[in-house]
Amino acid sequence: xxxxxxxxxxxPAIQSRIRVVPNFPKPGIMFQDIxxxxxxxxxxxxxxxxxxxxxxxxxxxxxxxxxxxxxxxxPPIALAIGAKFVPLRKPNKLPGRVFRQEYELEYGSDCLExxxxxxxxxxxxxxxxxxxxxxxxxxxxxxxxxxxxxEVFECACVIEIPALKGRERLNxxxxxxxxxxx
Length: 182
Prior knowledge:
The protein is an alpha/beta fold. It is 27% helix and 32% strand. The protein has 5 helices and 9 strands. It has helices at residues 10-16, 35-38, 41-55, 70-81, 136-147, and strands at residues 19-22, 30-33, 62-66, 84-88, 98-105, 108-115, 124-132, 151-160, 175-180. A 5-stranded parallel sheet has the order 4-3-7-8-9, with helices on both faces. A two-stranded antiparallel ribbon has the order 1-2.
């Protein structure tokens, strides 16, 4: 299963709290704003709980959150399932040695970095972000973790934009999504 079924009563509330902002950050982009979801403590908790329910017995030792919105969802999931949290940062934000991976976005390019030594070979990892669009960011995260020797179990996102076919770029890596874009 890669997408939660809409028959869970929490899903409509989550969907309704995501605001779509046209032409942000560039013309033609329909930005999926999760900050409105965060304003409702019950819906925010339900969002976290749905991920925790899925992952609590999957022997995941690493939750890797993608900057910046993966930092919102990743730490509470990691704490609840007993895993460490590893931040995947934008360039030049981490001191010391890093793994670096450049990637393409639907509206430009970017880079992710992870500390060398943050993940040990053989650790089982979950990648968390708010959204899967073109899949470029998730691919970069998977590449970073796998270069460090981790086994990426799955990617978890609150929202998917299916029209951008991001899943196709992940080479069969499973993605668990709560809602499709509005």
